[in-house]
Design goal:
Mean pLDDT of chain A: 89
Mean pLDDT of chain B: 95
Structural class of chain B: alpha+beta
CATH topology of chain A: 3 helical TM bundles of succinate and fumarate reductases
Largest sheet of chain A: none
Number of helices of chain B: 8
Chains: A mainly alpha (258), B alpha+beta (265), C alpha+beta (649)
Shape of chain B: elongated
Helix content of chain B: 25-40%
CATH class of the largest domain in chain B: Mainly Alpha
CATH topology of the largest domain in chain B: Fumarate Reductase Iron-sulfur Protein, Chain B, domain 2
Strand content of chain B: 5-15%
Helix content of chain A: 55-70%
CATH architecture of chain A: Up-down Bundle
CATH architecture of the largest domain in chain B: Orthogonal Bundle
Oligomer: heterotrimer
Order of helices and strands of chain A: HHHHHHHHH
Number of domains of chain A: 1
Number of strands of chain A: 0
Radius of gyration of chain B: 21 Å
């Protein structure tokens, strides 16, 4: 029988990560397990993305009611609070929606931050020369448009939801949303910030919608181009729908009083 | 024609590198890019300088050994072509070209334009196979494979593991590579029994190696010399969701290799 | 039975291939039954080294690992998947008879022996044909995506030199897909811990202790470290040596070093001059050419080979009418036409070009025309079948083969020669097994298309995993580890060789020597060989070797990654091998298969065998650097397929 004492091993440059023993054990909970993978985090981005895109489209459509006049617009705002009555009490559905949206936004940001850290660590040294062949400006600026949107959302909530900024004291009305919009957007700076932020949203959606469809496995080679086009069209329509309001206010089409 | 090459020179894995500029004269348009580098290296050796190290072997675009960036493009400007099959007729007289190795923390540079891609092997080790012990195979035609599945499997299996997808990805992600192998095996009837374990193990191994994640830029698809489509990453996502979220009679966690993906690095 | 078959003194011997008795259909079964087994529990105690991770090496390492042996795999590549098997395009033969077109194991056996021009061992060729059936089953189970028909069944096609459709394929990348199957099986064993893989590690010598192969010396190509590795068995599956010609279709790093070093340690080298010239490669474009690219032979199924009738006709091919074209293969070989075996097609191309009727720059090319195929099947069907090959052609030449015919010319492609092995694939050094192209193979003097993949996998999956355990079970081993003085001795020798290469500091690069050697071999020991040419080469090679020794310049040092040093070591061994090839070619004054001696041809220019004198496998023994090698013979008997003059007319 042979006895062997072979001491030398392959001289690996990078200690291989043996499949058998490595950090941690797979969590029993499938959702936790999914979250641990980069693909799981992408899925979180995509699923929260679906919720947020749905909200953005609905919000944009709702905004357009302002062109039906003050009464219609304020009624719509009230409807959002009374919907579901008497089955569910006043404004409960709205609050549920708000909680879901807030959670989605926070998860979306959290996953984005985690993935960004992983991605930066994956390429510590960048290329001296690098040419992009397929990607778009929108895709490359997702992090910036995302940050812009986060800042915008905070401002927007403080501004038109709470009336905490941008209104002189007493100017924010808890009855007339129409009044608040027209007053709030009548300043040049605020309006331009809103329009710029919607530009950011447009870029974010241009890549985001397509990206979400791809992550959720709705993309195939055959329909890839069409999905990208769809994404771009939706992003642009949302952009137009949103900026219609500040532009109309600035142009004086929506007067403070009818 | 005459060219100027700006080439990344690095003596070893732990030494800093730098770009060095070399003129190359009398380049024939019929030469391959690597043959042009051969000519440069012959000159360097005669002059008493160290030749440029670059990896290559079959020189017909199938072994996957070669690859570096030419002017910021993996394998150079021609789509669906490895650098060994790129011919100098794709360039103009007087061109100045920058040659740079793949850059990713999972692919450390070994020397000049050579990087260590053993991370790919470790991803395959984690599950990129069908367990078919030699001698145990049933009669080949007993397993019917729809042509569509077989063609899809082939499209995916065409991957040569050159690493261009990782190099081109803004996030140094290896998802095109991993998804190609998963698609190849998961789409075939033979691959079904181990499908879920394979999926989670390979994805975990990919994450452990320190590759980035996919943000759907599609740079990998454009860079791939074998034209592997981004669609396979979408498929891989589905494989992962299905593996983890599908109800299993016995928890999947008990059947897969213990190495879970790490949350942060 | 396991005694050394030849004594150390160099006197010619008759070799015993240990072919089992009995009818040919029962030989392999009988051999397997006679083999000793190692019980499952004892397998961990044996260590097996497998060098090379192509089809034969990866399959053998994976299978032996799976059986429970401790396997160490070695590859000079960064990953086992890069081995040159990956570049095989056309397909793999198997006697499945799925087409019901008259195929059978016996017919594949018959075709192999006939194709090999009666210089192959019958028992081996029969076993190969038997195992071909199991190979396809194994590969399909592993998930190799072979081409399929709409019903989900496997598709086959006919391939160079045969009249049945028995070739299984995966587009034009069959070798890649088969290798990935073997590679994945190997990676599975690596993760299971039964195979330890050493990548970027090149075997530089073999260690023989008490007459048995007991280990190898390896250089780590990244760190430069030279290390010994001990084992009970060494398997070499390191491929062929066609790169002795510098220009060949082999990958740049393919080399002879592993088997040459084993040869110098006592393993006989079988039929070194048997090389295969592949008829369909892309012609050379200039001095810079670093390798040749093969266009799969399957192209000859639908492409028609022709040259202009007139000498020096430089008109574009489209301007030459059918009457002015010479479809010379169809004319000379009406029954096989464009599908004649590789050696016949190659020689015919050489003849028309030598007659001044060649096409393209330099006149060394013939047309392979798809015009008629496109008219008959439609462009889409041609694209479906050969699209990727047309793309390769376009990439390299800048020409679109749908519109203008391809230009092709023969190139060295495969070496049938290699280390001599017996029926058990063991060389003349006990414990040294050789598989795949590295052994002198079952292919005789010429290999049929789509048979190399078959042989590599038969050796790797089925034969070695049966014969290696038999050797282990029937031998006694003294405990040996790398502390044994023999390891130190060989290691020092390797180190001295490496240092000598670096210390020469001459004026010429390694490639310039390699190119010169290649040109010489192609001219004198290539498609047609003559006594005077071979004598010329035999005079020049030692001079070239001496120039190399005194004037080579290898930059850098041995302390790290040094590609020039790697090349230098390989070329140094080619310079020795070349002499043996010419010696073998000179001694075999008959023509057979890929070996064409101009002195031995029929009146109409076909190869003429001399069965009376040369019906044997030549196995050469190394007797020292300055001594002539000694020829040993393994007589070949043909009990089943009776030697006839091959005719494809």
């Amino acid at each position: 029988m042979t006895q062997q004492f072979i001491s030398d091993r392959a001289v690996g440059l990078k200690a291989p990560a043996p499949a058998g023993k490595s950090r941690g054990v797979w969590p029993g909970n499938p959702v936790v397990a999914l979250w641990r993978t980069t693909i799981g985090k992408k899925a979180v981005m995509a699923v929260t993305g679906v919720i947020l895109v749905g909200f953005v489209i609905a919000h944009m459509a709702g905004n357009l009611k302002i062109f039906l006049g003050e009464k219609a617009f304020n009624e719509y705002a009230l409807f959002l609070r009374t919907v579901g009555e008497p089955l569910v009490p006043y404004s409960v559905l709205l609050w549920i929606a708000r909680v879901v949206l807030l959670a989605s936004a926070l998860l979306h940001i959290w996953a984005a931050v985690e993935l960004t850290r992983i991605n930066w660590a994956a390429r510590p040294r960048s290329y001296a020369v690098k040419r992009s062949l397929a990607t778009t400006a929108a895709a490359l600026t997702m992090r910036y448009s995302g940050v812009l949107l986060a800042v915008f959302i905070v401002y927007h909530l403080l501004h038109l939801t709470l009336g905490a900024v941008g209104f002189s004291s007493g100017a924010f009305s808890h009855e007339s949303v129409y009044h608040n919009v027209v007053t709030g957007l009548s300043g040049w700076f605020v309006s331009i910030f809103y329009i710029l932020a919607m530009g950011g949203l447009c870029l974010h959606l241009d890549h985001g919608i397509w990206s979400m469809l791809q992550t959720l496995d709705l993309n195939t080679n055959r329909i890839s181009r069409r999905l990208r086009l769809l994404s771009r069209v939706v992003a642009f329509l949302v952009f137009l729908g949103f900026i219609a309001v500040p532009i109309a206010v600035l142009a004086g089409w929506l007067g403070p009083k009818e | 024609m005459n060219l100027t090459l700006r080439i990344w020179r690095q003596k070893g894995a732990n030494t800093p590198g730098e770009f060095v500029t070399y003129p190359v004269h009398n380049v024939s348009p019929d030469m391959s890019f690597l043959e042009m580098l051969d000519v440069l290296n012959e000159e360097l050796i005669v002059r008493g300088e160290e030749p440029v190290s670059f990896e290559h072997d079959c020189r017909e675009g199938i072994c996957g050994s070669c690859g570096f960036l030419i002017d910021g493009m993996t394998h150079g400007p021609r789509r669906g072509t490895t650098v060994c099959q790129l011919h100098m007729r794709s360039f103009q007289d007087g061109d100045e070209l920058t040659l740079e190795p793949w850059r990713a923390s999972a692919f450390p540079v070994l020397k000049d334009l050579i990087v260590d891609r053993s991370a790919f092997d470790r991803i395959i080790q984690s599950g990129g196979f069908i367990s078919a012990p030699t001698g145990s195979a049933p009669e080949a035609n007993a397993i019917l494979v729809p042509k569509e599945s077989s063609d899809t499997a082939f499209d995916a299996a065409a991957c040569i593991a050159c690493g261009a997808c990782v190099a081109a990805c803004p996030n140094a992600s290896a998802m095109l590579f991993t998804s190609a192998k998963l698609t190849h095996l998961n789409v075939l009837p033979q691959g079904q029994p181990e499908r879920d374990e394979r999926t989670v193990n390979m994805v975990a191994a990919m994450d452990r190696e320190g590759f980035g994640s996919c943000t759907n830029h599609a740079e990998c698809e454009a860079a791939c010399p074998k034209l592997i489509p981004l669609e396979f990453i979408a498929r891989m996502n589905r494989y992962v969701y299905r593996a983890l979220l599908r109800p299993h009679r016995h928890p999947l966690a008990e059947r897969i290799a213990p190495g879970a993906p790490s949350r942060a690095r | 039975m396991l005694d050394t078959m030849i004594s150390t003194q160099a006197s010619p011997q008759t070799l015993d291939a240990r072919i089992p008795p009995g009818p040919i259909e029962q030989k392999w079964d009988r051999a397997r039954f006679d083999m000793k087994l190692v019980s499952r529990a004892n397998r961990r105690k044996y260590r097996v080294i497998v060098v090379g991770t192509g089809l034969a090496g990866a399959a053998a390492a994976a299978t032996l690992g799976e059986q429970g042996y401790q396997v160490d795999g070695f590859s000079f590549h960064d990953s086992p998947r890069r081995a040159h098997s990956i570049a095989a395009q056309g397909g793999i033969n198997a006697a499945k008879n799925y087409r019901n077109d008259g195929d059978s194991i016996y017919r594949l056996f018959y075709d192999t022996i006939k194709g090999g021009d009666f210089r192959a061992r019958e028992a081996n060729a029969y076993r190969l044909a038997q195992l071909s059936v199991e190979i396809i089953d194994q590969c399909v189970a592993q998930g190799v995506p072979f081409a399929r028909e709409y019903g989900g069944l496997l598709d086959t096609r006919s391939f160079g030199g045969v009249q049945v459709e028995r070739t299984f394929y995966a587009r034009g990348q069959t070798g890649q897909q088969l290798l990935l199957g073997a590679y994945q099986a190997l990676e599975r064993q690596i993760s299971a811990g039964s195979v330890k893989m050493h990548t970027r590690s090149e075997m530089l010598d073999l260690v023989v202790i008490d007459g048995k192969a007991r280990g190898i010396i390896v250089r780590n190509l990244v760190t430069g470290a030279i290390t010994p590795h001990a084992a009970d068995v060494v398997v070499l599956a390191t491929g062929g040596y066609a790169n002795v010609y510098y220009l060949s279709t082999n990958a740049k790093a393919s080399n002879v070093t592993a088997i040459w070093r084993a040869h110098r340690r006592g393993a006989l080298f079988g039929n070194p001059c048997f090389t295969q010239i592949h008829p369909t490669c892309i012609p050379v474009t200039g001095e810079h050419q670093s390798k040749l690219t093969l266009m799969s032979e399957s192209l000859r199924n639908d492409g028609r080979v022709w040259v202009p009738v007139k000498k020096g006709d430089t008109r574009p091919p489209g301007a030459i009418s059918d009457a002015e074209r010479d479809y010379y293969l169809e004319r000379r070989y009406p029954s096989f036409g464009n599908l004649v075996p590789r050696d016949v097609a190659s020689r015919a191309a050489k003849e028309v070009c030598d007659a001044g009727r060649g096409v393209g720059p330099g006149g060394y090319g013939v047309y392979l025309d798809f015009r008629d195929a496109i008219n008959r099947m439609g462009r889409d069907a041609v694209q479906e079948k050969y699209g990727n090959l047309f793309e390769i052609y376009e990439r390299i030449t800048g020409e679109n083969a749908y519109d203008v015919p391809m230009r092709i010319y023969p190139a060295v492609h495969y070496t049938m020669g290699g280390l001599w092995v017996d029926y058990q694939l063991m060389s003349t050094i006990p414990g040294l097994f050789v598989g795949g192209e590295a052994n002198f193979s079952d292919q005789g003097a010429n290999r049929l298309g789509a048979s190399a993949l078959m042989q590599g996998l038969a050796d790797g999956y089925f034969i070695l995993p049966a014969t290696v355990p038999n050797y282990l079970a029937s031998s006694r081993f003294d405990p040996v580890n790398t502390a044994h003085p023999a390891f130190r001795e060989v290691e020092d020798e390797v180190r001295r060789r490496t240092e000598a290469l670096l210390a020469t500091k001459g004026k010429r690069t390694v490639d310039s020597f390699h190119r010169e050697l290649g040109r010489l071999m192609w001219d004198e020991c290539g498609m047609a060989r003559s006594e005077s040419g071979l004598r010329k080469a035999l005079a020049r090679i030692p001079e070239l070797r001496e120039e190399f020794r005194t004037d080579v310049r290898v930059p850098g040092d041995d302390g790290g990654l040094n590609q020039s040093l790697e090349k230098a070591g390989r070329v140094a061994d080619f310079l020795e091998l070349a002499e043996l090839m010419c010696t073998d070619a000179l001694h075999r004054s008959e023509s057979c298969g890929g070996h064409f001696r101009v002195e031995s041809q029929t009146p109409d220019g076909e190869a003429m065998r001399n069965d009376e004198e040369f019906s044997y496998a030549a196995a050469w023994e190394w007797t020292g650097p300055d001594n002539a090698p000694v020829l040993h013979k393994e007589p070949l008997t043909f009990d089943y397929v009776h030697p006839t003059q091959r005719s494809y007319k």
